[in-house]
Amino acid sequence: MEEKSAKPKAVLLLSGGLDSTTTLAIAQAEGFDVYAITFRYGQRHEFEIQAAKRIAQWAGVKEHAIIEINLRAFGGSALTSDIAVPKGRSVDEMAVGIPVTYVPARNTIFLSFALAWAEVLGASDIFIGVNSLDYSGYPDCRPEFIEAFEALARLATKAGVEGASRIRIHTPLIAMTKAEIIGRGNALGIDYSMTSTCYDPGQKGEACGACDACLLRLKGFADNGLVDPARYAANDLL
Predict the structure, then answer these.
(1) What is the pLDDT of residues 148-197, one digit of tens each?
(2) What's the structural domain count of the chain?
(3) Domain containing residue 194: CATH number
(4) I need a labelling partner for 31 at 20 to 30 A (CA). Which of 77, 99, 141, 203 fits?
(5) Tens digits of residue pLDDT in 107-153
(6) Segments forming the whole domain that contains residue 194
C-alpha cells in the first residue's frame, strides 16, 4: 500500500514563465506537495505551455493539469487578439496605465479553477506568482485583489462555509523586484533556460528581447550580474 504523504497539498498556477517557476520552487521549499495547473487560454503561442510541462516534470509535481479555456473568443488583449505587442518601452513607460498585454479577468478566472481543484483535493493553499512591482498596471496582480479573492473563497466554497478549511492565496513574489526573484530562484537551483517569458516569441520559441516581459527579465538578470540563459532572436540582446 502506498504511504500517504504527510505534506500539505497546494495548487499552483504554472504558466511556464520565470515568476511561476520561482513560485513553484518556493512552494516546494516550504514543504508543500504541489499540484500544478496550466491554462491553454487562447494565448498567442504554445511555447509557454510546453515550458510548463518541462518545469512540472523537472520539479516532480504531484500532478499537472492543463486546462482549455478560449479567452480569444473575447479578445481585448495583445495576448488573445491581433493587437500588437508593445516593444522597446522604458521601465517608466511600463509603470503608467494598464498595458494592452493585460488579459481581462485572467487571474480571476485562473484562480477560480485553482480554487475548485483545491477544494476537490482538500487543499487549503493556492500559490500564484503575481508581482505588483514589475506589473503595477495589472489590476489582478495587486495585494487588494488577492485579499478580496481570499474572502470570496471563504464564502463560495463548501469547505469555507462549513469551516473545514480556510483557503490561503500565497503570493511570495508580490513585493519583490525581478532581480530579487531571480536571485531567490538561483538560490533554489532553478535552471531558467526551461522557462518561457516572452509575449511575442519567434517560430522556434526564441524570445523577442523587446517586449515588456523580455526587457524586465533581461534587466533582472543583469542586475544580478548574470546572463539570461533563455534563447533570444538577436544574440546582441544577451
Answers:
(1) 999 999 898 888 888 777 899 999 999 999 999 999 999 999 999 999 99
(2) 1
(3) 3.40.50.620
(4) 141
(5) 999 999 999 999 999 999 999 999 987 655 789 999 999 999 999 99
(6) 9-233
What whole-number distance in Å separates Cα of residue 18 and Cα of residue 194?
9
- The answer to whether residue 141 sits within a structural domain is yes
C-alpha cell recorded at residue 187: 538560490
3-class SS string, the chain: CCCCCCCCEEEEECCCCHHHHHHHHHHHHCCCEEEEEEEECCCCCCHHHHHHHHHHHHHCCCEEEEEECCHHHCCCCCCCCCCCCCECCCHHHHCCCCCCCCCCCHHHHHHHHHHHHHHHHCCCEEECCCCCCCCCCCHHHCHHHHHHHHHHHHHHCHHHHHCCCCCEEECCCCCCCHHHHHHHHHHCCCCHHHCCCCCCCCCCCCECCCEHHHHHHHHHHHHCCCCCCCCECCHHHC
Residue 1 in domain: no
Describe the crossing of helices 178-187 and 212-223 by its angle, rounded to 10 degrees: 60
Is residue 4 a part of any domain in this protein? Answer: no
